[in-house]
């Protein structure tokens, strides 16, 4: 059964490809990207003010370093962004010598290790990978990925999840909770069937996996065993990624996109690309900071 929960439009700016939402509890600020347009959105939830920052490059995710700095994952590497003035300084290159790829789904592990996905700009098969930025050094975790998505972690940090959307499989992999690095091989947790595809995900405080189902106007909630527990309606067909927001982390921010829609499809999906907040009655978790050293 599809749940219709109270939903508001947080931002009516229609993203070409909205992605990478995260939330800073300390400042009550949500952040997300329009990958294709090279924009970073900043929304202060209490006051309602929204700023849009032009980055000059495609970027897909960020992690908080500290109160003054963020680590932004972009098409050619990871940049330290200073909040005071928006200045971006290259921290480390990533596939900078391959103009055919860009960054995609990413998330920070409780240890401070940042998992980063890359993919072909037109989703070429097997052109991407998932990397770990651990204590300032990048290593390859899973090569040959077409569309990396659903990167998230169990509350105890002992399990990681990811998907290659092209394969319609959500994988679970055992991790060292102190490092966020694999200590075993990925295993199939679930196979997605029916309408839509597995896109971005986030884990809640109970270990449930909240997945944006691209092409199906919904967010699905799965148990750690892969059983679908809930499906929440999203008023845009191409929901792309969720994040827990609010002082008690009970609400769900969901990005969306109008990518690959023609005029007729966009007319039939008038809120495509908007960013929403769902009253999800969730038990979310705060995102950890990135550790660079």
Automatic annotation (TrEMBL):
<feature type="binding site">
    <location>
        <position position="149"/>
    </location>
    <ligand>
        <name>a divalent metal cation</name>
    </ligand>
</feature>
<protein>
    <submittedName>
        <fullName>SMP-30/gluconolactonase/LRE family protein</fullName>
    </submittedName>
</protein>
<dbReference type="InterPro" id="IPR013658">
    <property type="entry name" value="SGL"/>
</dbReference>
<dbReference type="Pfam" id="PF08450">
    <property type="entry name" value="SGL"/>
</dbReference>
<feature type="binding site">
    <location>
        <position position="199"/>
    </location>
    <ligand>
        <name>a divalent metal cation</name>
    </ligand>
</feature>
<dbReference type="InterPro" id="IPR005511">
    <property type="entry name" value="SMP-30"/>
</dbReference>
<keyword id="KW-0479">Metal-binding</keyword>
<feature type="active site" description="Proton donor/acceptor">
    <location>
        <position position="199"/>
    </location>
</feature>
<feature type="binding site">
    <location>
        <position position="104"/>
    </location>
    <ligand>
        <name>substrate</name>
    </ligand>
</feature>
<dbReference type="GO" id="GO:0019853">
    <property type="term" value="P:L-ascorbic acid biosynthetic process"/>
</dbReference>
<feature type="binding site">
    <location>
        <position position="19"/>
    </location>
    <ligand>
        <name>a divalent metal cation</name>
    </ligand>
</feature>
<dbReference type="GO" id="GO:0005509">
    <property type="term" value="F:calcium ion binding"/>
</dbReference>
<feature type="domain" description="SMP-30/Gluconolactonase/LRE-like region">
    <location>
        <begin position="17"/>
        <end position="257"/>
    </location>
</feature>
<dbReference type="GO" id="GO:0004341">
    <property type="term" value="F:gluconolactonase activity"/>
</dbReference>
<feature type="binding site">
    <location>
        <position position="102"/>
    </location>
    <ligand>
        <name>substrate</name>
    </ligand>
</feature>
<keyword id="KW-0862">Zinc</keyword>
<comment type="similarity">
    <text>Belongs to the SMP-30/CGR1 family.</text>
</comment>
<dbReference type="InterPro" id="IPR011042">
    <property type="entry name" value="6-blade_b-propeller_TolB-like"/>
</dbReference>
């Amino acid at each position: 059964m599809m749940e219709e929960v109270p939903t508001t439009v947080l931002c009516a700016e229609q993203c070409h490809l909205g992605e990478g939402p995260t939330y800073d509890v300390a400042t009550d600020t949500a952040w997300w990207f329009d990958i294709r347009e090279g924009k970073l959105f900043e929304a202060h939830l209490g006051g309602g003010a929204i700023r849009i920052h032009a980055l000059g490059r495609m970027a897909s995710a960020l992690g908080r370093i500290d109160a003054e700095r963020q680590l932004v994952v972009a098409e050619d590497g990871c940049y330290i962004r200073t909040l005071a003035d928006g200045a971006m300084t290259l921290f480390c290159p990533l596939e900078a010598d391959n103009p055919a790829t860009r960054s995609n789904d990413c998330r920070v592990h409780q240890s401070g290790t940042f998992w980063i996905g890359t993919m072909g700009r037109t989703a070429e098969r097997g052109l991407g990978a998932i990397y770990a930025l651990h204590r300032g050094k990048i290593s390859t975790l899973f090569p040959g990925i077409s569309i990396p998505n659903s990167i998230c972690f169990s509350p105890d940090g002992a399990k990681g999840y990811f998907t290659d959307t092209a394969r319609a499989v959500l994988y679970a992999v055992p991790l060292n909770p102190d490092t966020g690095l694999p200590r075993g091989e990925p295993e199939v947790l679930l196979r997605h069937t029916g309408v839509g595809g597995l896109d971005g995900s986030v884990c809640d405080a109970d270990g449930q996996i909240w997945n944006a189902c691209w092409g199906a106007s919904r967010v699905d909630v799965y148990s750690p065993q892969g059983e679908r527990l809930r499906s929440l309606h999203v008023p845009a067909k191409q929901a792309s990624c969720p994040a827990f927001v609010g002082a008690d982390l009970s609400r769900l921010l969901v990005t969306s996109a109008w990518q690959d829609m023609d005029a007729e499809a966009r007319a039939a999906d008038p809120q495509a690309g908007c960013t929403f907040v769902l009253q999800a009655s969730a038990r979310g978790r705060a995102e950890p900071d990135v550790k660079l050293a």
